[in-house]
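Take a minute with the sequence and fold tokens given here and flag any structure token that looks odd. Thanks in advance.
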Amino acid sequence: MRKNPKPTAFEGGIPLVLLAGPTASGKTSLSIELASRISAEIVNADSMQIYRRMEIGTAKPTAEERRRVPHHLIDVADPDEPFDAARYLDIAGPVVEVMGKRGKVPLVVGGTGLYMRVLTRGLCQGPSSDPEVKQRLIAEEKSKGLDALYCDLLRIDPESAGKIHPNDRQRIIRALEVFYIGGVPLSIMQKAHGFRQELFPAVKVFINRDRKVLYERIDQRVDRMLEAGLEDEVRGLLSMGYSAELKAMQSIGYRQMAAHISGAISIQEAAFEIKRGTRHYAKRQITWFRADHEFRNFDADDIEGIYNYVKEQLAIRN
């Protein structure tokens, strides 16, 4: 089983600062202010902002915000490119290591909890790939279809299947490959791993808002996205040949707008579904981060409290 070695740059060096929060909580503006105070550069931990040509629906930092503070891991993959937590770790790990060597604090910002977890705690990769097993699965996909492989995964490892989109060919084949090589489901291996390996020490901050206020901010953000041209952005992606069935295009905002463009729903229905889907996603984010007791909770407007806590923790850990 492959393990990610602990990078040496952070042994006794600068720890990461994780700034997490639900969508529309105000992470971007807060991160710019905090980064300027602690001499940090920002590392994206939002699973949608890694995609190129997906600007409006992912609420990426503006060009001006990126000029004020260097940002990393934004626009690193095309919408049809497979991208998961393992690849995130492969790219982000060296980035934060080099940042630490330059004396900059890596400020990891986003709402994708799994990305933050693997960056600080490593990832169970499973056994090395077996070309013979992989080729057999690829041949089976060609003869029976991806749906058949996904059904096999549902039977063999329902927990992993529940976390993988039925169209995510790479992850379906990998999960099946892991089982056929070692006879143990990937989900069982991940539980045994337990994310107990420390790759990078981290100061963890979670921001939130009153739920009514958060939901109002979500609705306002969706309205701004629609006014800014989300429909045109999705039409452009479809015209470039990016299928509406791609994992990236199935994300909140893009999925509903593609359905509207196809004539399946009205623009009003699309807006309603985007707002509802975003609220549900925010609830899941809050649940995820509240379950991680290493995160210190703050009101999103408490910039001074957050700054003082981070400054204190960095002083203790350096």
Notes: The mean pLDDT is 91.
